[in-house]
């Protein structure tokens, strides 16, 4: 048994990307980067590991699940398998020609439930918003890199899910000089 962890950068007002899907507004540099590079290095893409000269630790996650729109920025720059150190699952409702290292699923909710039954490290829900909305009932932990910026509009952290309150308990908050706050929550298991 392992947990599904939605680890994501988010604006003050709950957006994970700008309206065009960009995320340049999020802070890359600053003292919060210690969390990104030390605790969550498994969630860095291979080209980042190469640039940093580090090996993926494989101590936090061994699997990533993402929506098709989250994979496409990597495809657009010629990266067919952004997280080769992880088992990569990509949700799509369409037949897609993908790298052999990627497993496609048209039923990510069933896939997430199945993955959680397996032994292993936790499963990282990378995003985006639409997929996170689908997987919300199965999310065990939220790790939010709350950036000190208001977007006004963009892609919401859970896409366009209908109003249906779900309880999470705050388990940790860390504030950084950069203004980023890392918020951690655990699901309380229902509405
Ligand atoms: N801030 C961060 O840390 C962070 C992290 C990750 C992503 N993002 C950003 O989030 C944006 C993408 O978010 P998004 O909400 O537009 O898209 P998304 O959730 O990444 O992908 C949506 C696509 O995934 C597939 N999909 C989603 N739910 C599905 C389901 N229930 N069943 C089958 N397939 C499903 C569909 O693909 P098909 O169209 O192929 O059917 C759908 O069009 C990107 O701009 C990305 O940069 C930000």
UniProtKB/TrEMBL annotation:
<dbReference type="InterPro" id="IPR050765">
    <property type="entry name" value="Riboflavin_Biosynth_HTPR"/>
</dbReference>
<dbReference type="InterPro" id="IPR002734">
    <property type="entry name" value="RibDG_C"/>
</dbReference>
<feature type="domain" description="Bacterial bifunctional deaminase-reductase C-terminal">
    <location>
        <begin position="5"/>
        <end position="181"/>
    </location>
</feature>
<dbReference type="InterPro" id="IPR024072">
    <property type="entry name" value="DHFR-like_dom_sf"/>
</dbReference>
<protein>
    <submittedName>
        <fullName>Dihydrofolate reductase family protein</fullName>
    </submittedName>
</protein>
<dbReference type="Pfam" id="PF01872">
    <property type="entry name" value="RibD_C"/>
</dbReference>
